Amino acid sequence: MNTLIYQSTRNTSIKADPSAAVLKGLAEDGGLFVPEEIPELPMTLSALAGLSYEELAFQILRLFLTDYPESELKECIHLAYGQNFDVPGIAPLVKKAGSFYLELFHGRTIAFKDMALSILPHLMTRAAGRMGAKEEIVILTATSGDTGKAALAGFADVPGTRIMVFYPKDGVSEVQKLQMVTQKGGNVEVVGVEGNFDDCQAGVKQIFHDAKLKETLMGKGFRLSSANSINIGRLVPQIVYYIYAYGQLMASGEIREGDEINVCVPTGNFGNILAAFYARQMGLPIKKLISASNENKVLYDFFRTGSYDRNRKFVLTSSPSMDILVSSNLERLIFHISGEDAEKTGELMQSLTNKGRYEITEDMRKKLDCFEAGFATEEDTQKEIRRVYEESGYVLDPHTAVASFVADSLLKEGRVDGSVPMVIASTASPYKFARAVLYGIEGEGSKESDMELVGRLSEKTGLSEPEAVSKLRGAEILHDKTIPASGMEEAVLGFLR
Fold it and tell me: Which of 24, 113, 149, 205 is flagged as catalytic?
């Protein structure tokens, strides 16, 4: 198999083989790595439908990570998916209230980020070994709630690595925060930032763009990389579960080979729905890709108008992992719909940095025909949690509820074909957001702590409390540092003394 080459979205002369792209995370010019071509599905849909999750992951990842020896890739996949999930199928598809919920929260941190962050550390350390990298790999990650814990769990005590996570100190749920600040590991650091996720993300990007700082750290034996979905090694494994969902629909007799499906994804940084876009480009019969936003509806406005504008009020919602105004992975889509025009992509990204907005051309907008978009208010989200629970007894977390509401609304409005099965990416366990879930079900708030509400949610719904939440009770707080957004570089240098 020929090596698939990756290129920067801002300068196509900057290229890397898969291992280098995974290890670097971000291209030298600040662009994101994208494959020079999207490979086709390696076999028929019916053949793919007969594979286990591990077998399917191998068939897909070997197309994108072509310089990884097959035995090494299989080992990475088994280490990721062999014993880290609480159901044999890894990502079950559940039919409730007229939709199919793809449950992506059965990993160690009960959020969809586990699907990729269980394998990324293995891909990264093997890439470093193969490339002869002597430096210690330092993972810098900004999180809106879930990436942080999943990355910490993946990299904790992995030899040759350190990981530092920045989170908005008042912008995550209590359970999300507890998951991070109680993380054990001799190589981990967790820091709260006085600001929102965009502040955290901007700070991390600024550090990556500081060539002098990176050179200084390399001289001290540290190599910076990222576990955010800007890293292609984070993004590619997410393609697998959309193909797996299609296979489950075939196996259950809901569709026949070649039938189309719709996919609706709660969208923040745009990585999860971009993975579905790549699956479609590979040949998966997806009719519509539906981007679902909460009240931070910058992506909804972009798909409606062709203008991306982050100059607006930032809203703290009950779906904090979507509280994002700068969706980094959208840059990859912009590159593709521009005809892989790196100069145009760089120009638009520079406008976003300088002016906080950009507008795509009419020709680019025409290439977004496979996308639909919608948004849910806080009230909509609460009502959707209640509707689905009352209709089916199924419990949604608020992020999944946003997507469920948008999917249902678009069906009612006739904007998507109701005869096509709707797959909704269910991105987190309801136990990570017990307060919002109970408020949705019961219609009233509570002064109890989130951990107290976890017990009440279990009593109310009959759902077993996940171990990932139970072990937080009485866990020692190991990370209590908070800093202003301007202090992120100093915090990194302190961590790497």
Answer: 113
